């Protein structure tokens, strides 16, 4: 289970394009740039409460999309399966004394897919 | 590149939950149950034109979501990468005379992820 913050950033990565520009900006400043509500308020010249409301609303929208679509959930499940696949490759590599180039290629592909998610 | 029909069904699989119940029903009858516009019209007791409009509108909505989110595209890319991974496993299996149980397990996991997408 991801912690709340990481989970919201993941949701944003998937569904962020469905937020308004303003929502995206506030979310980004708060979650990705790690600014405080006060700092964002000052920088954007709006009230701290307004910043809070926009971010809360953005979170709700992202969560609603995930509730309906479950695509982050699907990606996460696949990611876990591929982590298991990587462990199996490691086991095979040990048996094979790590001398198969195909195996490292295989590992790279799977890692690539995992990181894309 | 998928043919149009298969592509729309894939989009529906991802974003269908964002359509209204009526849109989902019409889309389903037309694309998954393969009924004609006329048959759907008769069954639903609305005009053929109305059925056509609802389905066209649904297609547009699904395509708009994909344009914004690109999640089907992402899944398809990952799927292709994993197909390559499967080919590599096949090569390894030939070298190893197909006698590693880990390999078949590995194959099953990757197939599982591919089919989920």
Give a structural overview.
The structure is a homodimer of 117-residue chains. The first copy, chain A, has helices spanning 4-15, 21-32, 37-44, 48-69, 71-95, 101-116. By secondary structure, chain A is an all-alpha fold. The first copy, chain A, starts with a helix and ends with a helix. Chains A and B meet through helix 4, helix 5 and helix 6 of A and helix 4, helix 5 and helix 6 of B.
| Structural class designation of chain A | mainly alpha
The beta-strand count of chain A equals 0
> Span from first to last CA of chain A?
16 Å
Q: Return residue spans of chain A where pLDDT drops below 50 for at least 5 consecutive residues.
A: none
Oligomer state equals: homodimer
Return the CATH architecture of the largest domain in chain A: Orthogonal Bundle
Query: What's the Cα radius of gyration of chain A?
Result: 20 Å
């Amino acid at each position: 289970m991801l912690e709340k913050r990481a989970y919201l950033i993941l949701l944003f990565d998937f569904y962020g394009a469905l937020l308004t520009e303003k929502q995206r900006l506030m979310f980004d400043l708060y979650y990705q740039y790690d600014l405080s509500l006060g700092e964002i308020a000052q920088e954007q010249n709006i009230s701290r409460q307004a910043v809070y409301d926009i971010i809360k609303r953005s979170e709700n929208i992202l969560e609603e999309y995930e509730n309906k679509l479950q695509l982050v959930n699907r990606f996460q499940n696949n990611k876990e399966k591929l982590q298991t696949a990587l462990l199996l490759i490691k086991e095979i590599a040990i048996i094979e004394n790590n001398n198969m180039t195909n195996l490292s290629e295989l590992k790279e592909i799977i890692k690539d897919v995992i990181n894309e998610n």
